[in-house]
Automatic annotation (TrEMBL):
Residues 263-305 are annotated as: Disordered. It comes from Mycena alexandri. InterPro entries: DUF6697 (IPR046520). This is DUF6697 domain-containing protein. Residues 53-251 form the DUF6697 domain.
Length: 305
């Protein structure tokens, strides 16, 4: 639905007060020759600002409910004609596009620079449909984006970021699966007394060690002294698929989210009583119960960046 409260309170305006430190975004955009003005979009605002949930996108367009770059099956691609999606999260990527057509940055704790990472979505000649998570359960289509490598955050730039931003990254890297690369590099640096090579890191990753003993404080120290750096990619809007957004609006008008599946996990009698886990619904069928107003509720943040 068109979330007027988000629009009127300015969250959808190009306001970078909650983003990276001043100059970080602009410097990289200028270096890449990317204009700071948003891409011109002619679609009416009441259609352009209709957002969608991840489970809706998964049902209609494929992919899972968690990945930043969800793999799309051949079946879904054949059905929709869409293969490449990106769902940046403003919690870890505060300078991702916040209004349709706006440029932005994507950050990733890869241990190496964006060029060294050699990510497929940055090296292949295809663009991605970007839907930014503006709020819980609230993903808005920003446009078609070219994602290209940029300079990693320098030690000085990292130190210039807000404590809140630094804490978010370090806390997540200490706990999440996508923080394994950083934890592995820090652990190997302790063991070897130097930076680990690509091969040494790859060998450790194959051993499937989690290195959960590496704390958020350990990670903060590594970033503060320059041992670890966040890789950066620029995000340039190169087009806007009006038909795609119109299709989202048409499909979501009567759509009601399916109830979450409940999986009961019962422990043995000697242990505590049974527990219930809520899991993400992966219903394949499209449910169309009676029409009602679509509301935006909370959603767990992505397991990936």
């Amino acid at each position: 639905m068109f979330n007027r409260s988000l629009w009127t309170t300015g969250i959808l305006k190009l306001d970078r007060s909650a983003g990276l430190a001043a100059g970080t975004l602009r410097k990289r955009l200028i270096s890449a020759g990317i204009k700071t003005d948003p891409f011109t979009i002619t679609l009416p605002a009441h259609l352009m600002h209709v957002s969608a949930r991840r489970d809706f996108m998964s049902i209609y367009y494929g992919g899972d409910c968690q990945s930043t770059f969800p793999p799309i099956t051949a079946e879904s691609y054949t059905r929709t004609g869409y293969r490449y999606f990106m769902y940046p999260n403003l919690v870890q990527n505060p300078d991702a596009p916040m209004i349709p057509g706006a440029p932005g940055l994507f950050l990733y704790a890869a241990g190496w620079s964006a060029n060294e990472c050699n990510k497929e979505w940055a090296t292949k000649a295809y663009n991605l449909k970007v839907l930014t998570r503006l709020g819980t359960h609230d993903f808005l289509y920003m446009g078609e984006y070219a994602i290209r490598p940029s300079d990693s955050l320098t030690q000085a730039e990292w130190m210039a970021q807000t404590q809140a931003m630094q804490k978010r990254w370090c806390t997540k890297l200490a706990k999440k699966d996508w923080g394994l690369m950083t934890r592995t590099r820090i652990a190997l640096r302790r063991q070897l007394g130097r930076d680990a090579t690509f091969k040494e890191v790859a060998k450790s990753l194959k051993a499937k060690q989690k290195f959960l003993s590496i704390t958020a404080d350990d990670i903060a120290k590594a970033f503060n002294n320059g041992d670890e750096r966040l890789a950066v990619w620029t995000m340039k809007c190169v087009g806007y698929d009006e038909q795609f957004q119109r299709d989202v609006v048409q499909k979501i008008t009567d759509w009601v989210p399916p109830p979450p599946k409940i999986k009961a996990v019962t422990t043995s009698k000697s242990k505590k009583a049974s527990t219930t886990k809520m899991v993400c619904s992966r219903t394949r069928g499209v449910q169309r119960p009676r029409r009602r107003a679509l509301t935006v509720e909370s959603e767990d943040e992505s397991e990936e960046l």
